[in-house]
C-alpha cells in the first residue's frame, strides 16, 4: 500500500509536468511562470522550495536528538523568508530580472554577472545534488534499490517534470507537494506520535525537562543557523526566482510572509515529532532515520505511505527549484562568461522565435539535471559540500547584494571588491581552520566583505546617475513593463 501511494505520487508529478508544458510558451513563462502567480500559488511554491529534506527529515532528526531546541534550523529558514518578504520582496519583484546577478548589473551598471553567477551556480547545484541524495534514501528503503539506482531514478523524475514545463510545471507540482507535506506532518505524524507517546505529560516523564528547553542545541549552533541559513535565504537564486513569479509586489510581500509563518510552524511541528519519537523509540541509531521509522512503526499502513510521500515531496520541491535556478544562472550568467573567456562571439538571441528559446532553456535544465545526478551518485559527504556552498554564497555575495538594495552610495567597484575579498577570505579561512564545518569561515568572509564594501564605496565615484535613474525607475515600479534585456547564451556544446 505504501509503495503504491508513492508510485501514484510520482506519476502525478510527471502528469503535472506534462500539463505545465502547455503553458511554457516563452522564456518568461518557462523561467518565472509569466510573473503572474497569485497568492495561493505563490505561497505554496515559496513554502515548498524552502522546506526540503533538511527541514523535514533533518528537522525531525534534530528534534529527536535535541528536543524542542531542534526547531532552530527550520526557524532560521523561516526567519529568512519573513525578512526577505517584509523588507525586500516587493522591490525585487519590480526589478523584472531573471537572476540575482541580473540585479547586480542593473544596480551597479557593471557586468559582474559571470563572477557572481559562478558562486550562485555552485550553491544551487549543490542544493540540487543534496536534495537528490536525500529523496534517493527514501527510494532505497521503500523499493530496495541500491544507492546509485535510487539516485538515477529519482533524479530523472525531477529532471523530466522540471524540463517539460519549467517554472509552471514546478509550481503545479509544488502545490501538490505543499498539500501532501501539510497533511503528512500536521494532520498525521504530529498528532499520532504525540498521542502514542502519551502527550505532554507522558513525553516529559520519559525524556525529562531538558528536552523541552529551547537552548539545548547550543547558543553557538543557533547563531550559526541564523547566520548561514537566514542570510542564505535572503540572497539565494532559488528563492529569488520564486519572488520573480509573483504577479504583484503585494503578492510577493504577503504571500511570502504567509509562507514564512507556515515554515515557522513546520519547524516547531518537526521538533515536536522528533521529541515524541525519542520517548517512543529511544534506540534509533541515526537521527536521519527517525522520520521514516516513525512513519512505518507508528502510523497504519496507507497513512504511513502519505507521510513518506510528504518526505519525498519536500525533497523533490527543493531539488526542482534548485535545478531550474541552476539552469537559469548557467544560461543567463555563466555560459556567456565562458564564451567571452574563450573569445567566442555570442549571437543575438532571436526573440521572434519564443518556442526555440524555450527549447534552449529546456536543454539547459536537462543537461544540468543530468550533471547533478552524476555528482549525486559519486559524492559522499553531502553536508560538507552544502556547507561550503552556503558559506561561499553568504561570505561572497550577501554584502554586495543587500548593500545595493539598501545603500544608495554603494558602487560597482565596491561590489566587485567585496565579492572577491569575501569569497577568498571564506575559502582561505576554511583551509586555515582545517574544518569546512567550522563557523569561522562565513564570519571572516562577511566581515571582510563588509569592510571592503563600505571603504571602497566611500573612496570611489558614486554609481553614474543614468544607471541609478534606471534602477530607481524599476524599484519604484515606474518601469513595470520592462523586462531584463535578453542576453544571448553561448551554445551548450
UniProtKB/TrEMBL annotation:
<dbReference type="InterPro" id="IPR001734">
    <property type="entry name" value="Na/solute_symporter"/>
</dbReference>
<feature type="transmembrane region" description="Helical">
    <location>
        <begin position="442"/>
        <end position="460"/>
    </location>
</feature>
<feature type="transmembrane region" description="Helical">
    <location>
        <begin position="175"/>
        <end position="194"/>
    </location>
</feature>
<feature type="transmembrane region" description="Helical">
    <location>
        <begin position="388"/>
        <end position="407"/>
    </location>
</feature>
<feature type="transmembrane region" description="Helical">
    <location>
        <begin position="6"/>
        <end position="21"/>
    </location>
</feature>
<dbReference type="GO" id="GO:0005886">
    <property type="term" value="C:plasma membrane"/>
</dbReference>
<dbReference type="InterPro" id="IPR038377">
    <property type="entry name" value="Na/Glc_symporter_sf"/>
</dbReference>
<keyword id="KW-0813">Transport</keyword>
<feature type="transmembrane region" description="Helical">
    <location>
        <begin position="257"/>
        <end position="281"/>
    </location>
</feature>
<feature type="transmembrane region" description="Helical">
    <location>
        <begin position="214"/>
        <end position="236"/>
    </location>
</feature>
<feature type="transmembrane region" description="Helical">
    <location>
        <begin position="70"/>
        <end position="92"/>
    </location>
</feature>
<keyword id="KW-0472">Membrane</keyword>
<dbReference type="GO" id="GO:0022857">
    <property type="term" value="F:transmembrane transporter activity"/>
</dbReference>
<protein>
    <submittedName>
        <fullName>Sodium-solute symporter, putative</fullName>
    </submittedName>
</protein>
<keyword id="KW-0812">Transmembrane</keyword>
<comment type="similarity">
    <text>Belongs to the sodium:solute symporter (SSF) (TC 2.A.21) family.</text>
</comment>
<dbReference type="InterPro" id="IPR050277">
    <property type="entry name" value="Sodium:Solute_Symporter"/>
</dbReference>
<dbReference type="Pfam" id="PF00474">
    <property type="entry name" value="SSF"/>
</dbReference>
<feature type="transmembrane region" description="Helical">
    <location>
        <begin position="41"/>
        <end position="64"/>
    </location>
</feature>
<feature type="transmembrane region" description="Helical">
    <location>
        <begin position="301"/>
        <end position="325"/>
    </location>
</feature>
<keyword id="KW-1133">Transmembrane helix</keyword>
<feature type="transmembrane region" description="Helical">
    <location>
        <begin position="363"/>
        <end position="382"/>
    </location>
</feature>
<feature type="transmembrane region" description="Helical">
    <location>
        <begin position="414"/>
        <end position="436"/>
    </location>
</feature>
<feature type="transmembrane region" description="Helical">
    <location>
        <begin position="113"/>
        <end position="143"/>
    </location>
</feature>
<feature type="transmembrane region" description="Helical">
    <location>
        <begin position="149"/>
        <end position="168"/>
    </location>
</feature>
